[in-house]
């Protein structure tokens, strides 16, 4: 009989890079699901009247916190889509060896971080 660990300390587990990408894929999916009600509310409010549109527009342009949240949601969208495409390619039989998985994960992280930096710079300036 195999002995199973009773307590797993998640901070002591060293995931390989493809595991980190997979974890971030789940995190980005959760962030997108959490953001949906807020985005729908903002859209509905902005379409209600021209005064509400002006209020929402001022909120989105003047609040640093809202801008950072927008950048995080945009990063989540880019990362989730690119990781999903990567997983579809893996399911199709591409990138089956460890080295190809590592390099595709590295490329995905580089593109994802670049997109985040682009969004933060573009949104904050």
Describe this structure in words.
- This protein is mostly helical and 125 residues long.
- The chain has a single domain, classed as 3 helical TM bundles of succinate and fumarate reductases, CATH 1.20.1300.10.
- Helices cover 80% and strands 0% of the residues.
- The chain contains four helices and no strands.
- Helix 1 (17-48) crosses helix 3 and helix 3 runs antiparallel to helix 4.
- The termini are far apart.
- The model has no long low-confidence stretch (mean pLDDT 88).
CATH topology: 3 helical TM bundles of succinate and fumarate reductases
Q: How big a fraction of the residues is strand?
A: under 5%
Overall morphology: elongated
Overall radius of gyration: 19 Å
Average pLDDT metric: 88
The biggest beta sheet reads: none
Question: Uncertain spans, ≥5 residues at pLDDT below 50?
Answer: none
The strand count comes to 0
**How many angstroms separate the termini?**
60 Å
């Amino acid at each position: 009989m195999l002995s199973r660990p009773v307590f797993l300390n998640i901070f002591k587990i060293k995931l390989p890079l493809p595991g980190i990408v997979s974890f971030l894929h789940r995190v980005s999916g959760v962030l997108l699901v959490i953001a949906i009600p807020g985005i729908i509310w903002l859209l509905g409010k902005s379409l209600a009247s021209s005064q509400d549109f002006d209020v929402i527009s001022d909120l989105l342009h003047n609040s640093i916190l809202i801008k950072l949240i927008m950048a995080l949601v945009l990063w989540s969208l880019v990362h989730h889509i690119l990781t999903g495409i990567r997983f579809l390619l893996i399911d199709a039989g591409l990138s089956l060896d460890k080295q190809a998985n590592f390099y595709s994960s590295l490329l995905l992280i580089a593109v994802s971080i670049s997109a985040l930096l682009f969004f933060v710079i573009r949104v904050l300036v």
